[in-house]
Design a protein that fits this description.
Distance between the termini: 40 Å
Number of domains: 3
CATH architecture of the largest domain: 2-Layer Sandwich
Protein name: aspartate--tRNA ligase
Low-confidence stretches: 1-25, 423-434
Strand order of the largest sheet: 7-11-12-17-16-15
Strand content: 15-25%
EC number: 6.1.1.12
Family: Belongs to the class-II aminoacyl-tRNA synthetase family. Type 2 subfamily.
CATH topology of the largest domain: BirA Bifunctional Protein, domain 2
Radius of gyration: 29 Å
Catalytic activity: tRNA(Asp) + L-aspartate + ATP = L-aspartyl-tRNA(Asp) + AMP + diphosphate
CATH superfamily of the largest domain: Bira Bifunctional Protein, Domain 2
Number of strands: 17
Helix content: 25-40%
Largest sheet: 6 strands, mixed
CATH class of the largest domain: Alpha Beta
Main location: cytoplasm
Shape: elongated
Length: about 500
């Protein structure tokens, strides 16, 4: 750790020029009285709430912590962050690490009348609770040795420090504990040290704190990029973004996994997917549509990969000749997403990898296509029997994934021609693709399939009728945003990729 270099004329004048709108008049009366004998009392303190309530725009220039680098040496900066660690060295010196998003920087306080820093100011800084929100004005300097505990390899020599909001003294979970990797726990155990392990339920109960870990900051930035790339790619292929109702009168998918409710006295449910409305949009002449929106499944599945509410990435398109036209869109879409993440999100992926180590996803430039029958044959050859025309369970899917990777060198492939018995009512026989298919576009066959799947046709009459007005052959697909991120980053639980997950046991926070 480096201490503050002797003040220079340049740095002293730069500090003097920093805005002084947070003066003693704005600080709490209690502190003013306490530090009445401190000539530098105006340079630090707790800012009263009434002084933070959008009274005026000062015009001050703020610097992002993540932007602080060697080029800023000697420059006066104003930063805001959360107090991640506070380390007093002596009565006259202390270190405070501030965090903003994924960036951290070490701030140095050294009592020196020439720089306006008093011992009382150092004491104030060390009295702050972890995770308090703090404004710091100071001068950027270069440390003598590389810094291991912060992302930024510079220090800020503090001239002023103000607490905007204090966190409670004892937090329900410690951020340092929540950010540890399994390797750190193993190393501590070998050394006979006992570290606190923050369980999944505890993390989710205090999600507002848990989200501050570097890995979580990175995960949801990755998620944002997946959503953006999904939109960008489909827009480039002439798809139109739409928004469909989530309160509907009948089941979207068939089956009992539906949340039922009363809608102004009428029976209704939450949409299991935008499927029916995507198809009606195709009937409406839009040719190609997509939607990003919430999907609800009332499945009592307490597994590592199921949620009762997730973000659906859905698309539907006209088919001119063959449902491989949809496969080609899926192929291009996911290869585009994977390449974008690999090439443009290195920092985020490295951050996730430090806490949750994973092997980079392997994929082919042209996605491998396998029929359901070919997949079943590979499983049989490996000694795994699947019920004829049955769905693949989780273990079978995992095993098939390992077999495909060993044989073809890819983690991502398209399994098509799923049997009719394991697909929704609106799909054409024997033409399932990923979680999509060519759809039925004739009202008679659609009504027949709906009845076979146990759906009351009267609840989806408007949907079926739309196909009697003339409907082109079409197909589409749907995938959960959370699941894409989970699989790309090889995370072991989908709750890690849902900011505030909803599963059969969790409705808060």
């Amino acid at each position: 750790m480096s201490s503050e270099p002797p003040p220079t004329a340049a740095s002293a004048s730069a500090a003097d020029e920093l805005p002084a709108d947070l003066t003693a008049a704005t600080l709490s009366k209690k502190q003013q009285k306490k530090d009445a004998k401190d000539p530098f009392a105006a340079n630090y303190g707790d800012v009263p709430v009434e002084e933070i309530q959008s009274k005026a725009i000062s015009g001050r220039s703020w610097t992002k912590i993540g932007d602080l680098d060697d080029a800023a040496e000697g420059r006066s900066v104003l930063i805001r962050g959360a107090t991640q660690t506070i380390r007093p060295v002596s009565k006259k010196m202390a270190f405070v690490v501030l965090r903003q998003s994924m960036g951290t920087v070490q701030c140095v306080l050294v009592a020196n009348p020439d720089t306006g820093v008093s011992t009382q100011m150092v004491r104030f800084a060390t009295s702050l609770s972890k995770e308090s929100i703090v404004d710091v004005e100071g001068v950027v300097s270069l440390p003598k040795e590389p810094l291991k505990a912060t992302t930024q390899q510079v220090e800020v020599q503090v001239r002023k420090i103000y607490c905007i909001n204090r966190a409670i003294p004892t937090l329900p979970i410690n951020l340092e504990d929540a950010a540890r990797s399994e390797a750190e726990f193993e190393k501590a155990e070998q050394a006979g040290e006992k570290l606190v392990r923050v369980g999944q339920d505890t993390r989710l109960n205090y999600r507002a704190i848990d989200l501050r870990t570097p890995a979580n900051q990175a995960i949801f930035r990755i998620q944002c990029q997946v959503e953006n790339k999904f939109r960008e790619f489909l827009l480039s292929k002439d798809f139109v973004g739409i928004h469909t109702p989530k309160l509907i009168s009948g089941s979207s998918e068939g089956g009992a996994a539906v949340f039922k409710l009363l809608y102004n006295g009428q029976p209704a449910c939450l949409a299991q997917s935008p499927q029916l409305y995507k198809q009606m949009a195709i009937c409406g002449g839009y040719e190609r549509v997509f939607e990003v929106g919430p999907v609800f499944r009332a499945e009592n599945s307490n597994t590592h990969r199921h949620l009762c509410e997730f973000v659906g990435l859905d698309a539907e398109m006209e088919i001119k000749e063959h449902y491989f036209e949809v496969c080609d869109i899926i192929d291009g879409l996911f290869v585009s997403i994977f390449k974008h993440l690999t090439e443009n999100c290195k920092k985020e992926l490295e951050t996730i990898n430090r806490q949750y180590p994973f092997e980079p996803l392997q994929y082919l430039e042209k996605t491998l296509k396998l029929t359901y029958e070919e997949g079943i044959q590979m499983l049989k050859e490996a000694g795994i029997e699947i019920e004829p025309m049955g769905d693949l369970n989780t273990e079978a899917e995992k095993k098939l994934g390992r077999l495909v990777k060993e044989k073809y060198g890819t983690d991502f492939f398209i399994l098509y021609r799923y049997p009719l018995a394991v697909r929704p009512f609106y799909t054409m026989p024997c033409e399932e693709i990923i979680s999509g298919a060519q759809r039925i576009h004739t009202p008679e066959l659609l009504a027949k399939r709906a009845t076979e799947c146990g759906i009351d046709v009267s609840t989806i009459s408007a949907y079926i009728e739309s196909f009697s007005y003339g409907a082109p052959p079409h197909g589409g697909f749907g995938v959960g945003l959370e699941r894409v991120v989970m699989l790309f980053c090889a995370l072991n639980n989908i709750r890690k990729t849902s900011m505030f997950p909803r599963d059969p046991q969790r409705l808060v926070p």
